[in-house]
């Protein structure tokens, strides 16, 4: 999408070539999403990340988790014994009444805007996403589009892609000190052993659940993954979905918003937040390509970690160094593009919860480059990215590519139309949960 970083491209190509021969012998294909035909691997980036030959097609995915396992996963998801101290379930931060996004406590609303953990006054380091449609997040991979000068990373869970699968991801919240705070799998096992939940998991995964912490973690992971892959977690019941199915029209402001969202000279949102309004299958409109970008939202000065001016959340480059991708710092500031389905129910926006209205989140794109002083403290553009990495920020995509003082791409009325359109992406059960933005 962005034409730069030629050095990195060469490094990636070399990395791919160097290991492709041996990799091809060992494993020529990889499955990136359940039910999707295996992807052909053309090389490896770092040690473990496959580069695949063709773009992934989410509509080919088949999710058929076994109903018994889904029910067990649902039980785990709502079980408040899973935190230390007890009292916090996954559902506490991924609220089923708010499209599985957080409903923030008064303390969180007055403070950093990220969810409060199992211990009062401790907050998640980042905002929490909706878990609806999370089953479509593919495993980590690189892919080079025909017109792109280099291969780009896609997929992986969390905004920095640090977990490869849902089953693997659950360890994060269960152990994080600011979240469920269980310390170690062994401690969690000791606590759960006396509960009916451990018995139910053992019935399914065998008696080792009671003895071996890793077996317990696998059991929790597989059950939760099955739940998150179930159709319950991908309802496709928004007014926009009804529009795609040609059941109900959108209103005139929503239609204008849709056109602006797609228009490459106006919102240009669709280049990252993908949709296809000519296809009746809503899986074609997941509102993300699962790629990464650096749009440089302002620093959230209420996050406890940001009291230290030297602290930065560097996003994908942390994962890139762990995975030994070449030149990992080229990915500092990059975050996975989120889906915008159900975005209008949220109380806070962006990975660091810096915005408290959807309108601000949209308006930011429009005037980030024309009026940076409106968004960044002391007018220091890209203030949440270390100076050394500010060259990574996307300054090429419309509408973020204008000169300071220039005319923005969208008028105030047009921003309102885009917001109206985004509100049509809310699934039916959550329509009344949308704050008036
Ligand atoms: C204290 C709040 C909190 C709790 C409890 C919590 N989460 Fe989360 N969850 C978060 C935050 C914050 C993120 C984003 C973190 C990041 O991107 O680094 C997240 C991200 C995720 C993601 C990644 C989604 C994506 O699009 O990449 C999944 C899946 C998830 N959580 C599932 C769970 C499950 C399952 C549980 C229970 C075992 C759980 N969460 C408990 C706060 C929480
Ligand atoms: C170049 C890719 C790209 C383009 C173009 C783009 N976005 Fe985004 N969008 C992102 C990324 C990456 C994030 C995550 C940023 C973060 O969390 O700091 C994001 C986040 C968002 C969010 C916050 C979602 C949440 O759950 O908090 C909204 C709303 C949004 N975008 C709307 C838009 C709109 C409207 C447009 C068009 C005006 C647009 N985006 C254009 C990549 C893009």
Number of DSSP helical runs = 14
The SSE order reads HEEEHHHEEHHHHHHHEHEHH
Task: Summarize the biggest pleated sheet.
Answer: 5 strands, mixed
Work out the radius of gyration.
22 Å
- Cα distance spanning the termini: 31 Å
Cofactors and ligands: heme C
Computed structural class? mainly alpha
> Which blocks of ≥5 consecutive residues have pLDDT under 50?
1-21
- Global outline: globular
Mean pLDDT: 93
Approximately how much helix is present in the residues?
Answer: 25-40%
Strand order of the largest sheet: 1-2-3-4-5
Strand content: 5-15%
Total E-strand runs: 7
What features would you describe in this structure?
This protein is mainly alpha-helical and 437 residues long. Helices cover 30% and strands 5% of the residues. Strands 1-2-3-4-5 form a 5-stranded mixed sheet. The protein has a two-stranded antiparallel ribbon with strand order 6-7. Strand 2 (39-45) and strand 3 form a beta hairpin. Helix 2 (67-77) packs antiparallel against helix 8 (196-205), helix 8 (196-205) packs across helix 9 (213-229) and helix 11 packs across helix 14. The radius of gyration is 22 Å and the shape is globular. The protein starts with 5 loop residues before the first helix and ends in a 14-residue tail after the last helix. Mean pLDDT is 93; it is low at 1-21. The site of one heme C has 25 residues, from helix 3, helix 5 and helix 6.
Please supply descriptive tags for the structure shown above.
mainly alpha, two-stranded antiparallel ribbon, 14 helices
